């Protein structure tokens, strides 16, 4: 849908020119796809229904159609759109099984020019399979990041949200007592003898760990956040007093000063880092764990945060200019970037790249896109009927279908999961 593309050919310094897609005969395009394309070039879902210069130049021209599948009226797809962060083989399988018309992949599956399309490449294989099934692919990447009310503001709403009072706090974990410590404690309490006393005529027995049912460290299966459960969260978004600004604003577009990459939050009152960790966890789907970096001379419960630099995905280049931020919140930072931040007294929270993005599809994009497409599909159907042209039975059947459905992929997930150290009782010798 929307993303950076040097080859899209939609915008020039002099203004807009007609996209190459206008040369494609309409009878090759699925009606639902035509409605989506039309909406993409005419207006923005995120800002205004008026075709302002910013809407066209930044949001609409960034709307990248990665794959336009031809329309086969005999094998018509559903009027449905599947949202995903990454278009993997599993997501392609899901779209084919669901008979979706369009896949909107936040990350563009095509990053550079292609000289060939073959089944040897797994990503190209997915594109070819989708084209065969009549499923088209869009990517919205950059515009969703930069738009007011987009992904950057969604993450800022999470950080500045509040939980039901008193807000839960993350605590520094204390190691559990070792078995040897437990044994020494038991002996010092006089429980090692047969009668539990210090009677010199009673033989004392040295406590030993049992041979069977020893506790052994094991790890869980990889776990992932559950953004589909965000509707039930108790986080009250953007309810903490704060000021919000754009880290890298879009320049030279009057009226859209709040658009750009990254967000800088300045709280009215310093917030405990423990509160922010809990808010972030609740806001993205309660992951079982995620990396947090703090200065080596501090404990997490002692840190107060006045300013937060936020950037979805890989935020190193954007957050580099946030010299005043006490906390950097992003999907991923390199080892050296995180180390440099903590050496300067900053804290870092990362969630893995796409875990900062996926919840936006559930919380915001699904509803916005669904509402927009319903209105646009109604308009397209009325325009087609008003032409009074003789349509094939297949086209008439397609235009009778009023339903529009937008869903989020159930198979999309970050490549990384978290394995949790667990203890289980097993038979055998102690390790």
What this model shows, in words?
By secondary structure, the protein is an alpha/beta fold. The chain is built from 12 helices and 15 strands. It has helices spanning 31-42, 53-60, 89-98, 122-132, 141-146, 151-159, 179-188, 273-284, 316-319, 335-343, 358-386, 393-400, and strands spanning 11-12, 15-16, 64-67, 80-84, 102-105, 136-139, 214-219, 242-249, 260-272, 292-293, 304-314, 327-332, 347-350, 405-408, 421-426. The strands form 4 sheets. A 6-stranded mixed sheet has the order 8-9-11-12-13-10. A 5-stranded mixed sheet has the order 3-6-5-4-14, with helices on both faces. Strands 1-2 form a two-stranded antiparallel ribbon. Strand 4, helix 3 and strand 5 form a beta-alpha-beta unit. Helix 1 crosses helix 11 (358-386) and helix 3 (89-98) packs parallel to helix 4. It is globular and about 85 Å long. The relative contact order is 0.15. Mean pLDDT is 78; it is low at 1-23, 40-62, 180-196 and 426-431.
């Amino acid at each position: 849908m929307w993303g950076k593309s040097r080859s899209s050919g939609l915008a020039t310094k002099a203004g807009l020119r007609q996209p190459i897609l206008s040369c494609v005969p309409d009878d090759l395009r699925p009606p639902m796809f035509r409605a989506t394309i039309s909406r993409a070039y005419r207006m923005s879902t995120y800002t205004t229904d008026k075709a302002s210069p910013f809407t066209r130049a930044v949001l609409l021209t960034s709307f990248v159609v990665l794959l336009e599948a031809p329309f086969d009226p005999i094998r018509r797809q559903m009027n449905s759109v599947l949202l995903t962060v990454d278009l993997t083989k599993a997501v392609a399988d899901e779209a084919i099984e669901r008979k979706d018309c369009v896949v909107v992949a936040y990350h563009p599956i095509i990053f550079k020019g292609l000289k060939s399309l073959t089944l040897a490449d797994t990503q190209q294989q997915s594109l070819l399979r989708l084209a065969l099934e009549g499923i088209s692919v869009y990517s919205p990447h950059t515009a969703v990041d930069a738009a007011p009310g987009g992904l950057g503001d969604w993450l800022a709403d999470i950080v500045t949200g509040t939980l039901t009072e008193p807000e839960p706090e993350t605590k520094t974990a204390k190691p559990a007592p070792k078995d040897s410590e437990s044994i020494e404690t038991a002996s010092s309490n006089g429980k090692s003898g047969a009668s539990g006393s210090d009677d010199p005529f009673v033989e004392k027995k040295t406590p030993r760990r049992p041979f069977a049912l020893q506790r052994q460290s094991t790890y869980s299966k990889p776990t992932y956040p559950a953004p589909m459960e965000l509707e039930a969260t108790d986080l009250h978004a953007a309810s903490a007093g704060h000021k919000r600004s754009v880290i890298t604003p879009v320049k030279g577009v009057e009226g859209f000063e709040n658009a750009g990459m990254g967000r800088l939050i300045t709280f009215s009152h310093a917030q405990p880092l423990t509160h922010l960790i809990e808010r972030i966890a609740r806001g993205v789907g309660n992951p079982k764990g995620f990396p947090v970096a703090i200065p080596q001379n501090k404990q997490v419960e002692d840190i107060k945060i006045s300013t937060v630099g936020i950037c979805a995905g890989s935020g190193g280049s954007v957050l580099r200019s946030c010299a005043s931020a006490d906390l950097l919140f992003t999907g991923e930072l390199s080892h050296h970037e995180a180390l440099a931040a903590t050496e300067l007294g900053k804290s870092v929270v990362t969630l893995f790249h796409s875990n900062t993005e996926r919840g936006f599809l559930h919380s915001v994009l699904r509803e916005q896109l669904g509402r927009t497409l319903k209105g646009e599909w109604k308009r397209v159907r009325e325009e087609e009927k008003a032409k009074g042209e003789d349509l094939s039975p297949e086209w008439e059947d397609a235009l009778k279908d009023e339903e529009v459905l937008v869903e989020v992929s159930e198979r999309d997930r970050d490549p990384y999961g978290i394995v949790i150290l667990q203890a289980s009782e097993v038979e055998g010798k102690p390790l």
